[in-house]
UniProtKB/TrEMBL annotation:
Claim: Nucleotide-binding is one of the keywords in the record: no
Source organism phylogeny: Eukaryota, Viridiplantae, Streptophyta, Embryophyta, Tracheophyta
Organism (species): Hibiscus sabdariffa
Xref: Pfam families: Methyltransf_11 (PF08241), PLATZ (PF04640)
PROSITE patterns found in the cross-reference section: ZF_BBOX
Protein name stated in the entry: B box-type domain-containing protein
Length: 523
């Protein structure tokens, strides 16, 4: 988090992998604004400078005014606006903007307002680095919210809903102000911010024309968002078209590693933030303090195509840009871990109510929901984890869960020749104190050398003492069900499993625990 010289105050901490905060004009010190996470992180900044939008903009319909919000990307002088007032799609589309000093005009001939330095040029084209040009592709723009962004969960991001909740906590000091969502992509968070009604205006800003078009399509599909104060602006993060000290909040979700020059971007964000403004962002880290030294050179080599930074580099960039109150926080619970603790298993599936064997006993790590065997075919390329039952409690096979998180010191039990661990804490009717170890969370008696009776107990213990789960999380791109898991093959048009008579007979034979009992012969 960072804050500008006038009116400083510490910001709140939070965010997935979780992230840091800064603000303008003060030396760095831990505070609740900027957020970082181990493999991914988020940060918040706070700065201010007392510039506001001209109040008369709301009074007249077609007038020419000098606005203190949008500025010329060349000289930074405020732009002259001609057209209806307001910070919404319709008003911006019908308005024209002009810089007195440069005598250059800007308009939104497309669905967005183009405020780049190259706006209006016909012959000249500028090619950005590959990491930037990639997101200008129509295909990537289309796929971004249709699977691309969801895969960030594999690297520790907690999921869009949780990231939004954390950002909202950081932005509480600036509620009611103007928010700029830098590198907004297809507007995943821009729409959430606008729909919340927390801000007087939300500006979705990106360099990719196709991302902004995709954002506009999503906005049109939601009447509540399209009626809110949201504007689409194309701009370069290293040349933000806003007056100095005119913005209350800046958000950059999973974006820092894509910026051609993070140092210029940080300086620009510091410039446009008012005193007390807040900056929240997230990104992937090159490595963390917990990454083994032997692995660091390898990670640096394979990540050269993007500007992956370290926690120390980000803090240094903040200090150099005049941002203060920097703070960071590591990953708490990734989305899949939250899901497996909250979902119910071994209950009937609502989608296959009339099907046989419709108990939910599979967890999809990519969708973070519990599913039944009939749902498995529709999650064919997802990571799936089978949940088992042991003494009336849900358990996971140790071999499977070890691929996702370190389960050392968690007591395992053996069922059907496989070692399993309990998912949640188990209620204990009476306290028993004897020889041996005890669970760190619930005081349950354990065998040596174990100190956790369940996965939930270990997670709670690590969050309480280490404040960061990232050193214990493991990257797993594929996770399949065991070969002996029975998946219904015949799926009818209504989505229900239809098992033939032969299959019913085979199933009944398989499920028969013993053969027909025979009386022992008499002497």
């Amino acid at each position: 988090m960072a804050i500008a010289p006038p009116s400083l105050r510490p910001l709140p901490k939070s965010l997935f992998p979780k992230y840091p905060c800064f603000s303008r004009g003060f030396p760095f010190r831990p505070s609740p604004s900027l957020h970082l996470a181990s493999q991914s992180f988020r940060f918040t900044v706070r700065a201010s400078s007392a510039v506001a939008v001209e109040p008369d903009l709301r009074s007249q319909q077609n007038q020419t005014v000098e606005t203190e919000l949008f500025s010329c990307p060349v000289c930074y002088d405020p732009l002259i606006r001609k057209g209806p007032p307001g910070l919404n799609l319709d008003a911006i589309y019908r308005s024209g903007f002009k810089c007195k000093k440069c005598n250059k005009s800007y308009s939104s001939k497309d669905v967005y307002l183009d405020l780049t330095v190259t706006a209006g040029l016909r012959s000249y084209t500028e090619v950005k680095p590959v990491r930037t040009e990639l997101f200008r592709s129509p295909l990537v723009s289309f796929l971004y919210e249709r699977g691309w962004r969801q895969n960030f969960n594999l690297s520790g991001f907690p999921g869009a809903d949780e990231e939004f909740r954390m950002a909202q906590e950081y932005f509480k000091p600036v509620e009611g102000g103007t928010l700029v969502d830098v590198s907004c992509g297809s507007g995943l968070f821009s729409r959430k911010f606008a729909k919340s009604g927390t801000y007087s205006g939300v500006i979705a800003l990106d360099f990719s024309e196709n991302m902004l078009r995709q954002c506009n399509d999503f906005i049109k599909q939601d009447a509540s968002v399209s009626a809110s104060n949201i504007a689409l602006v194309r701009a370069d993060v290293s040349r933000l078209p806003f007056s100095s000290g005119s913005i209350d909040a800046v958000h950059a979700g999973a974006a820092l590693h894509c910026w051609p020059s993070p140092s210029n971007a940080f300086a620009e964000i510091s410039r446009i933030l008012r005193s007390g403004g807040v900056f929240v962002g997230s990104t992937f880290l090159r490595y963390t303090s917990s990454t083994p030294w032997l692995i660091r050179p390898f990670r640096e080599r394979v990540m050269q195509s993007y500007n992956y930074l370290t926690e120390e580099e980000i803090e240094e960039l903040c200090t150099n840009s005049g941002l203060t109150n920097y703070s960071k926080k590591g990953i708490q619970k990734p989305a899949w871990l939250e899901g497996i603790f909250s979902q119910k298993f071994f209950v009937g599936c609502s989608y296959h109510e009339s099907a046989k064997k419709n108990e939910k006993k599979v967890f999809c790590l990519d969708c973070c929901i519990s599913i039944c065997p009939h749902c498995v075919p529709s999650h064919g390329f997802h990571r799936l984890l089978q949940v088992r039952r042991y003494v009336y409690h849900d358990v996971l096979r140790l071999e499977d869960v070890q691929k996702l998180i370190d389960c050392s010191n968690v007591q395992a039990y053996t069922i059907n020749s496989a070692k399993v661990v309990f998912i949640k804490k188990r209620a204990q009717n009476r306290q028993f104190k004897g020889a041996g170890n005890y669970c760190t969370s619930c005081d349950r008696s354990l065998q040596e050398p174990f100190i956790h009776c369940s996965l939930g107990c270990k997670v709670d213990y690590m969050l309480e003492h280490c404040k960061d789960l990232s050193p214990f999380l493991r990257k797993c791109n594929t996770l399949r069900l065991s070969p002996d898991f029975l998946i219904p093959q015949d799926i009818g048009e209504d989505g229900m499993a239809k098992i033939s008579d032969d299959q019913d007979m085979a199933t009944s034979i398989i499920n028969r625990r013993k053969g027909i009992p025979h009386r022992s012969p008499l002497g």
